[in-house]
Amino acid sequence: MSDANELASISAFGPARSTVQDTNPLSKDEIEKYDDYFKASLYLTLGMIYLRQNPLLNEPLEKKHLKARLLGHFGSGPGQIFTYMHFNRLITKYDLDAIFISGPGHGAPAVLSQAYLEGTYSEVYPECSEDEEGMRRFFKQFSFPGGIGSHATPETPGSIHEGGELGYSISHAFGAVFDHPDLIAVTMVGDGEAETGPLATSWHSTKFLNPITDGAVLPVLHLNGYKINNPTVLARITHKELESLFVGYGYQPYFVEGSDVETMHQAMASTLEHCVLEIKRFQKQARDSGKPFRPRWPVIVLRTPKGWTGPRKLDDRFLEGFWRAHQVPITDVHENPEHLKVLERWMRGYEPERLFAGGRVAAELRALCPTGPRRMSANPVANGGLLRKPLRMPDFRDYAIAVGKPAGSIAGSMNNMAGFLRDIVALNPTNFRLFGPDETESNKLARVYEAGKKVWMGEYFEEDADGGNLAPAGRVMEMLSEHTCEGWLEGYILSGRHGLLNSYEPFIHVIDSMVNQHCKWLEKSLEVEWRNRVASLNILLTAVVWRQDHNGFTHQDPGFLDVVANKSPEVVRIYLPPDGNCLLSCMDHCLRSSNYVNVVVADKQEHLQYLPMDEAIVHCTKGIGIWPQFSTDEGAAPDVIMASCGDIPTHESLAAIDLLLTHFPDLKIRCVNVVDLFKLISHIDHPHGLTDTEWVALFTDDTPIIFNFHSYPWLVHRLTYKRPGNGHMHVRGYKEKGNIDTPLELAIRNQTDRFSLAMDAIDRMPGLKKRGAEAREKLKGAQIKARNQAFEEGIDPAFLSGWRWTRGEGGK
Amino acid sequence: MSDANELASISAFGPARSTVQDTNPLSKDEIEKYDDYFKASLYLTLGMIYLRQNPLLNEPLEKKHLKARLLGHFGSGPGQIFTYMHFNRLITKYDLDAIFISGPGHGAPAVLSQAYLEGTYSEVYPECSEDEEGMRRFFKQFSFPGGIGSHATPETPGSIHEGGELGYSISHAFGAVFDHPDLIAVTMVGDGEAETGPLATSWHSTKFLNPITDGAVLPVLHLNGYKINNPTVLARITHKELESLFVGYGYQPYFVEGSDVETMHQAMASTLEHCVLEIKRFQKQARDSGKPFRPRWPVIVLRTPKGWTGPRKLDDRFLEGFWRAHQVPITDVHENPEHLKVLERWMRGYEPERLFAGGRVAAELRALCPTGPRRMSANPVANGGLLRKPLRMPDFRDYAIAVGKPAGSIAGSMNNMAGFLRDIVALNPTNFRLFGPDETESNKLARVYEAGKKVWMGEYFEEDADGGNLAPAGRVMEMLSEHTCEGWLEGYILSGRHGLLNSYEPFIHVIDSMVNQHCKWLEKSLEVEWRNRVASLNILLTAVVWRQDHNGFTHQDPGFLDVVANKSPEVVRIYLPPDGNCLLSCMDHCLRSSNYVNVVVADKQEHLQYLPMDEAIVHCTKGIGIWPQFSTDEGAAPDVIMASCGDIPTHESLAAIDLLLTHFPDLKIRCVNVVDLFKLISHIDHPHGLTDTEWVALFTDDTPIIFNFHSYPWLVHRLTYKRPGNGHMHVRGYKEKGNIDTPLELAIRNQTDRFSLAMDAIDRMPGLKKRGAEAREKLKGAQIKARNQAFEEGIDPAFLSGWRWTRGEGGK
User: Fold this and answer.
1) pLDDT grade, residue A6 (50/70/90)?
2) Which residue does chain B place closest to A297, by CA atoms?
3) Could you tell me if B470 and B593 lie in one domain?
């Protein structure tokens, strides 16, 4: 359908066609060995999909040997295996430090078969030993209840990339090689995956990779041709377009195309070798000269038939080279004896009896594998916890904001915390990076640039010297793609380092699914004994909903917390520090932790400060507490509990207490503040949760609670519906009401402003039913007045942000 | 930093450099006019950002004329205006039908100024009249409390793309031109936006656009050079790379680069004209021949300085052509009198007194605009509700699944419903499309292909004839990018048509943020009087969590409902039909509705069927109800209420009733089923919600309720925490427990299986404390036995899926 002039024959079938030609690095003997190795590996792949008994086909294949339910994906396996095994040759030849990232969906059989052939699998899981019974177990567990998945899950030795959700192989790979100058991440990209948005933009990662300080990614785009039921876009455009696309992305593409195995061995071996030498040449040039540059990094385009080496047709229908080879290639072997025979013939064609004589892979094939940690299935980088060193951390107390009278002065909590981050960057020059989608400066974290600038390998212009903060060797990673930033960070952490993502709160939903998947990875990793704990994934959210008044409705969405709260309590933590010292304490805690997803929500504007550092530490350690300095109940039963969670909601809640005390100086008010959101849920459901006894000590079981919350109010109800006295809980939060507003107006629309909260309290206290009416009127009047003034001027009246707590200790 | 050989001068400054050369379509007089028009438009843009008084600068500019809080983005405005106004010439010259999509973030001033100059704005909003006072109001309202936003929000005439969240301009544009053969969508893509994943892959949309039946997108990549605080990737790669990238994406790139306004006028005018003629030529060729093909569609790369025509420097710091021009270009005009003067000089440089003499734009400038609906700000396509025709719908009752004994037989609900969809496709050949990320066949909707195949404009291979279901003119849109599919669907709907997205449940989180943004668009549209209602965005989720046992943990996430439930009750609807006839009824309802986001969750496997069509209609209309055929309370007070929501949870809940009745034949059980999730919430909070009286009639306020839910259980608690008797509500659902399991095992892990539910019921009924113990033991034993059998065989025992309701009416 393309422009007629550009039509190109792009069938995956035929003798090898490749960019690198006339080098035949393999001897005839080597070709035979690699051919055997390929067969052995393909055999294992089919075995995983089909067999629960008779693993070596020592007996004729019968139905009883088959798994009852056939699951697994064959389609992309052959191409992945082909790449992996030919790269092994180069690892040995050049003593390379490499990992393999399997991007195509359900690609595990390929890498599992390699881990088994390399011996790693049996080392890690001794029950899957290198003998007939071990192989039987190895086959049976695959996609079998209680067994292992068809993705490269945490159980897979050598994996840092599960690939359950598609799109992140390249960003994970780049994350892994940053600050690992000798590492090469061989990264298979499925042509299905390549259609996703996150993958499509992640190719640009080369603009952020420094050939002196970072390693290299060698992407292999696998043009398998088909997805589940459709051809892939990249397999059906012209050769010229495909080549141009990669030149455009900044790569030098090398094609290896065909189905003839013998010629493909030479083509793949020579192409991979050429690419490795190119990588080494670029690195040497940059490192010898000390001048980082952005070369045209190599990318391989591997076009092989889907289900390569399988039957081209089954009956009259296409199989190899078509989407029917995507998953289980022959599905009806239980019911169709003819097809069972086809399968048996196919499997025997891989010669298991010869290649696994005695149940163990032939020694001369094993000799093709690297050894020890050079095996990609055993590289410690892919069990990053092994490499993880604790961050060198300055004492966060040294960055304390001086707080005299509580709520008596303002400071920029975020800007202050940036000093702490800056020094962490300085102390960990190869171990920590800050990530963000072009928002770090906007988020008031620019002081970090004093210790590490933004990595930039694109062109430099004259203006850049004027505050551009760009450098080839920087520590801050900024690309306008939350997906890429998150993917880099995940790869960086999973390979043993530390990091932090900062992002606008409203657009963090862009990576809901990525964070979900990372939570799932962490959760499963806890069950894998040999995986060491990795640094937590830390997400700092700012530009929060309550200060998105001027940006309007599209920028108002605090719902990421709901997504995170659905994940396993073993791995998620949510903190909403109310002020600057609490922010420091929370960040210190998060950056020291491991195996969590920590979400910290804090506004970036200047804010009232409440707690001196020592009190902040106590408050954050407890995660929730009564604030006596703003309370008037002094041990007596309170009339009302004014609770808050989040810096801006806390500010308004305190101002509401102030208003209430102005009108009712004798009111017994208890002020409760929540930093650690999961304190609200039962200790049975989350390790941070309070017991009901602890809950009642704070909230009683009979007092009205006016809870001002940062996010959607229903999240608090969801966490507290079982609590004693939960019927007294009145939660305010963002209710999806907003437009172009002032902060006051936005708060009023959602009833989180001080006036609304004070009126809420009056309404809920039975004792104020009568005498509260007048005060309520006044509050309403003050609210309307402030509102009108804001409408007229376009800014809120100064008395709102100028509010300070003026009472003595105990709020009197 | 690039390869030294390829370094290219890519400054945005200087005389025009363009691909199309030696054609100078504009006369000197025309250049002068366009120059004036440009100035008038730029003046309006600055006016919106700065002024609340003195709109025409009739007086010297003083602080009191300024808005108190300065908001808005100037950076991308000039380039957008330049494109818009030069395209106007071609609209008039060739009588084009066109819309303008503004991709760059906060790009509204550019399009608002055009709408005002074209007169549309004053027609729609008479208070912003074409005189001094009207202009003052027009200025003041911008980014002002109670006013309009800095994105192309629903209030913006001519907009179908708000651009609050970046990345969707191209997919929206393609969605709008599908089945609009004469429409051209001129689409500005910001170079910031271009870094996002969704945008990066959406360029491939051309592989799904048929030049005979569809219109054309003319993308203009605006190389503004900078994001908020960083250079953009695409502005800092070599010219060759940039050109290759677009050739690779399948386009013919045309460059227009420079800052010299006079030469840029000629370059832009001639380039746009060339591109329009190319589009017309391709369309003519395909339409005359009847042979659709995929041409190299034109794309324009417009490189102009950020903040073009502003001061190059402010004091010693770069402004024009640097990121400091991104937002408000001079921020301290309130405090710095010198800078206020700079601003005034700058604004007067645009000659407002001459161009808006008498407060109205000069007639000869207005004459440059198209008229009536040819104005891009007034094209009815951008108010799609005007064009929307109801779908032609077959009677869904004709597709009813025959249901004899309730829960007595199984059928494929999804496969059956596909017949209904197929006939909708057939009846609406230019008005309805089905979208999905390569999952339509997997989702059992393949019967749709009988009426409309999958659109495919890539190459065709021999295998495609073997069940490929591809065609250049199809009705099903499949690309492995949820982002692109969703963007296409949004664009298709917003321009007046109908559609449905089908997707795997686990990966719908990929587009959480897009759906959020669409909800917000719909919600705001309700407040815009002149916007007509558009078709609902319908999302059909299948491959649900409970049948993702074999795909493992990464495929288990039903949390999209939590994200949707946070949006405004005015626009979101969630349905979980329990069986095939209910699915038909729900789909019929959703496809007829308007201005909602409808989410329907249904499994794709074969299922027990419960309700004959007439009962299904009643049940779905009520949205919730008692199922007497599975109840034994017969008007008496029930001992327990077994409630369910979702097809698989319903199945297990009914089986649990069966188990309970086996052990306790005299038990009074009430069976309640929920189709419409928002029935659970109070009618105060959602228009579908039940009153408390209605609630009590179903659930009582004192009976234990065992509620089996499709998604995370907390969502039900969140919706029902206020209900009478909510302490009796025990909700089961997915609790983030899963691995490679059988369906039974997955259910048991999450306590949603029949055995667990029956035991739950026993535990909650005080009357069964004693006599229930034995039954409980038996249930536990049966559960363990089934579980072990599944572990051994790899599939669940047949008696589980073979379960049928065997009791008489009333469950006896």
Assistant:
1) very low
2) B3
3) yes
